[in-house]
Amino acid sequence: MALNASQIPLAQQVHEITWMTEDYPPYNYLENGHITGVTIDKLLAMFAYMNINFSRDDIDIYPWPRAYRYLEDKPKRCLFSMTYTKERARKFYFIGPIVTNRISLIALDDGRYEQLPAAQLKIGVVRDDIGHILLREQGVSEDHFVFLSTGFEMVKMLSLQRVDAIAYGESIARFQFKRAGITTSKYHVVKVLKESYLGFACNKAVDKSLIEAMQHALEHINQTPKKPAV
Asked: What Cα–Cα distance (Å) separates residue 38 from each residue in 26, 45, 109, 134, 199?
């Protein structure tokens, strides 16, 4: 008799899943050809707590729009880090929180954004990223969006004044400004779009027993104080 999903060992379930991430520093990103970041370390710690052998090599990095599409359309996929929303929670299983995340509209601190008529605004976003989704839900038309591939490209375009503002996570934008050698004091938050948290999102074809085990592991990791550096 075939086993149902809840009877399959958790380690086997983990290795049947495609684990996907994107370039979203400091949480998950490529550095010298290796996937690293706060969220990567947390996922590895969770699986270590669950006694599951898992490494950075088991994680694939994709552009966000493609990874999000795979998560929607293909079974046994998990994607991180993803900002939690009620709409997304209806579509996917969420494991979190990893860290808090504030999504904001960021512009050059010269009044340019405020002075331009709304019909002329160009806002840099990553397609299907939370900034794009939130603005679309607020009624901003697709004509106002400039679709870019990464947060790094977004801050570069903002610094070159190719876009009037960007919609992105504040902490990630700060990291990308620093990465690009751009002075952050020249930019300001025009509007906070959402305060939420980052989590791991899984297609609902993933068995709930694994989701619950991962949630328990994350809660344990979050409550365990870090050892002081020697």
From this structure: 6, 11, 30, 25, 12
Q: Residue 167 and residue 172: Cα distance in Å, rounded? A: 11
Model's pTM, two decimal places?
Answer: 0.87
Helices of type H across the chain: 10-16, 38-49, 64-73, 86-91, 112-115, 130-137, 151-159, 170-179, 208-223
Q: Do residues 35 and 56 make contact, with C-beta atoms less than 8 angstroms apart? A: yes
Q: Three-class SS of residue 54?
A: coil
Residue 204: alpha-carbon gap to chain centroid: 18
Which tens digits make up the pLDDT trace of 163-216?
999 999 999 999 999 999 999 999 999 999 999 999 999 999 999 999 999 999
* Strand 34-36, strand 29-31: pairing: antiparallel
Arithmetic mean of pLDDT, 56-85: 96
Structure-token pair, residue 228: 């002081």
Instruction: Give the position of tokens 């947060």.
Output: 151
Give the contacts of 75 (CB within 8 A, at least 6 positions apart): 203, 205, 206
Write the Ramachandran bin of 103: left for phi over 0, alpha for psi from -120 to 50, otherwise beta: beta
Phi-psi region of 15 (alpha: psi -120 to 50; beta: other; left: phi over 0): alpha
Query: Could you tell me which of 213, 191, 188 has the C-alpha nearest to residue 200?
Result: 213
